[in-house]
Amino acid sequence: MVVHEERPIKPLFSKGPSLGVRLLVLVVLSVALMVVDSRFALLKPVRSQMGLVLMESYWLTDLPQRVFQGVASQFGSRTELAAENEKLKTEALLLQGRLQKLAALTEQNVRLRELLNSSALVNEKVEVAELIGVDPNPFTHRILINKGERDGVFLGQPVLDARGLMGQVVELMPYTSRVLLLTDSTHSIPVQVNRNGLRAIASGTGNPERLELRHVADTADVKEGDLLVSSGMGQRFPAGYPVATVNEVIHDSGQPFAIVRAIPTAALNRSRYMLLVFSDRRTPEQRATEAAMAQEEADRQGTAQPPAAAATEQATPAASAPASTAPATPAAPAATPAVPVNPAATPASPSQPRRQ
């Protein structure tokens, strides 16, 4: 019979001090190190060397996060840059549109200022009108304005811009009107040379940049650069407004008339705002009658007369005595006021031009 001897089993891990002892030792060691570090400079080299070692470990541990952030920032910044680029392009386009609008408003302001300055030089009543349409027929030069019969516009009313005459109203509608320009082939206007007063007829040629003077004698004193103004003949256009500037005079010895071409002073194909001229449309007889009646009314209001004198004045309207004169005594011819003129009894002479 064999008897086996039991041997003690060795533990796999040798047992050391307990956890409490270990914790106590570490706490004491930490306190000792803190006291030594605070009182002496012995641990500074050790701390600096440990900082270098720990820095490398920090860099290695933070590397994945930094790589991820770098890749994300690259993609994010590219997307943001693309979005910002599109936004800047849109803003630039809007600013360019506003700049163009500002340039148009600046030009419009300049034209309106020119028109305002020209209206200050016009003695007649004027009203500003705006171009709203152009006749599409290439053989007629007509435009449509935003003033009509409801605004007091009448047929034949002169239209001018900041530089000179443009034409006349030929068709009325309640709120709009059609204007026939000077350069229309069916239009003519009496003009005179501003330098010497030579009268002529300027006719349209169908070209918006040219007028022609018809039936001008070959020996007439017309030169290049002469300013042509409206003469007032025909009682349609007021006198003295610029019409055109002579730019070409051709003399032909074999022809009785010279060829005279002129450029309109008005910007016929560029003006957007224009003036409607409301001139005095009364005849000379009407103006004389109204002036005489106004003078007589002023004399009646300014002179206090007794009833007998008033009765004498009604019996003899051709003579009026002042208040200090006896009623039966007629006034001297020199004191006789202007008698109202009867247009039917005294018509105007045919040779005398009618004033507008």
From TrEMBL:
Pfam families: MreC
Annotated region (Disordered), positions in chain: 286-356
UniProt keyword terms in alphabetical order: Cell shape, Membrane, Transmembrane, Transmembrane helix
TM region(s), chain numbering: 20-42
InterPro entries: Cell/Rod_1 (IPR042177), Cell/Rod_MreC_2 (IPR042175), MreC (IPR007221), MreC_beta-barrel_core (IPR055342)
Extent of Low complexity compositional bias: 303-356
Domain Rod shape-determining protein MreC beta-barrel core: 132-277
Family, similarity comment: Belongs to the MreC family.
NCBIfam families: mreC
Protein name per its UniProtKB record: Cell shape-determining protein MreC
Species annotation: Pseudomonas shirazensis
Gene designation per UniProt: mreC
